[in-house]
Specification:
339 residues; 7-stranded parallel sheet; 39% helix; two-stranded parallel ribbon; alpha/beta; binds nicotinamide-adenine-dinucleotide; Rossmann fold; single chain
């Protein structure tokens, strides 16, 4: 297949591009490099047919032109800004880069006759689910509590409306929306990894402490109603997540619309993650206990029933140490990320 990967220079998009190339697909990466790394493209080039276009994914005509030129069959849409705190400070930037750009992307698909998309959504669209919805099923009401979550939910709504209208006109449009939980780890062959700037994710921060690049890690809240008092989250290995994309791509037939949560279906506490990082790295990880952050629900993890039964996807890597070890191996070789 000819696949357009938006955000393909970022963490998850680069893992998707790598896997698609390994499976023999042709890949076109569109990334404006707001957060991505161009070095990724040089690493991917020897693996197959990859083309890089540095542009905003929502720019309309130029993107439609690329789609026609590369005979794109399907879009994997990862490109977005993804920091909750930043979205609260700069909401318009999030609605521009995430929501408005996605609208431009859909218009370009329409113009170029591309009718299949797999969209990266997020469990942040659920906001703070009531306890009875944890583990979280896809039917959990979506009530995001920050602009990031809302900017992604709006894209889901656009996709639903567009799919509906296309169906009414007997035109083809097929879409799978994948709502990820916390994505972690990296390519287990150590070719690419996770490098965010600024870094806000728990595992990379713990590894930076292990490398001596940060003095400590702060736990935000140690008095939650959980076994060890810290928040519990669902960590899905990035390679398992990409498996879900590949399945979604292969099973996506004309005029279908699917929504799946992607998470392993069990949670680990912040303390468990930090302890596992200390075990994997063999280093002491200094912890500072801080106050709770507003809006952090105590426990979030997936109910994987639908994705297990309908997509036939199950996480292969559910063990924290294996997840962290993959991230550590890359980070040890690349202490300053992509540099
Ligand atoms: N990392 C996670 O744990 C997580 C969890 C849930 C959902 N997600 C979603 O997964 C996707 C990828 O996340 P990531 O962690 O790889 O982020 P990332 O920041 O590493 O990658 C995103 C990439 O998209 C590019 N980009 C952003 N806006 C763009 C635009 N308008 N036009 C072109 N390129 C653009 C950035 O330059 C970057 O390379 C995002 O849509 C995010 O919302 C991530």
């Amino acid at each position: 297949m000819n696949v357009l990967v938006t955000g393909g220079c970022g963490y998850i998009g680069s893992h998707a591009a790598l896997r698609l190339l390994e499976d023999g697909h042709a890949v076109t990466v569109v990334d404006d490099l707001t957060r991505g790394h161009k070095q990724v493209i040089e690493i991917l080039k020897p693996l197959g047919d990859v083309r890089f276009v540095q542009d905003d994914l929502g720019r309309g005509d130029p993107i439609a032109h690329v789609m026609r030129q590369r005979s794109i069959d399907l879009v994997m849409h990862f490109g977005a800004l993804a920091y909750v705190g930043e979205s609260v400070e700069q909401p318009l930037r999030y609605y521009r880069k995430n929501t408005a750009s996605s609208l431009g992307l859909l218009e370009a698909m329409e113009e170029a006759g591309v009718s299949k998309i797999v969209f990266s959504s997020t469990c942040a669209t659920y906001g703070k689910p009531p306890k009875r919805y944890v583990p979280i099923p896809e039917s959990c009401p979506q009530k995001p509590i920050n602009p990031y979550g809302r900017s992604k939910l709006m894209v889901e709504q656009m996709l639903l409306d567009h799919a509906h209208a296309k169906k009414q006109r007997d035109e083809t449009f097929a879409c799978t929306m994948l709502r990820y939980f916390n994505v972690a780890g990296s390519d287990r062959k150590g070719r690419i990894g996770e490098d965010h700037d600024p870094e806000t994710h728990l595992i990379p921060i713990a590894l930076e402490v292990a490398l001596g690049q940060r003095p400590h890690i702060t736990i935000f809240g140690t008095d939650y109603d959980t076994e060890d008092g810290t928040c519990i989250r669902d960590y899905v290995h990035v390679e398992d997540l990409i498996d879900a994309h590949i399945e979604a791509m292969q099973q996506l037939d004309a005029n279908e619309l699917h929504t799946f949560n992607v998470g392993i279906g069990r949670g680990y506490s912040v303390r468990e993650v930090i302890d596992a990082a200390a075990t994997v790295t063999g280093k002491k990880i200094k912890v500072i206990e801080g106050d709770r952050r507003p809006g952090d629900p105590p426990t979030l993890f997936n109910n994987p029933k639908r994705i297990n039964s309908e997509l036939g996807w199950e996480a292969k890597i559910a063990d924290l140490e294996t997840i962290i070890d993959s991230a550590w191996q890359w980070r040890k070789q690349n202490p300053h990320g992509y540099g």
